[in-house]
Amino acid sequence: MTTTAARPVDPEQADLLTLIADEWTTLGKPFADAFRDACWDDAIENAGTVNPNRVRKVLMKRNDYDPRQLSALWGSACSTKRGFLDKTDERVDIDPDGSKGNGNKDVLLRRWRTGVER
Questions:
Q1: pLDDT class for 99, splitting at 50, 70, 90?
Q2: 95 in helix, strand or coil?
């Protein structure tokens, strides 16, 4: 009898996924900084509310735009330790422009976390 051991991700791909989600590497920091700036600007213009559609629209203008990295940054932005956004209960439809296959879904709005500076 032969047994196959399965790993969820091969080592080369695991490194790539880490780089995509990590906002602290040399490759990830400029985009993470642009993401934070876009969130801040949106919060300032909208009484503290951050709409992922508007943030994505700003970031899509960048040469280094990567939707996978953007998705990963939302999680860390809302984390309890170093996050700067809080999730709300309010949902908006995802703008299908620039969002592959998600136009039929909705997304939570975020709020800039009280006491957190830009």
A1: confident
A2: coil
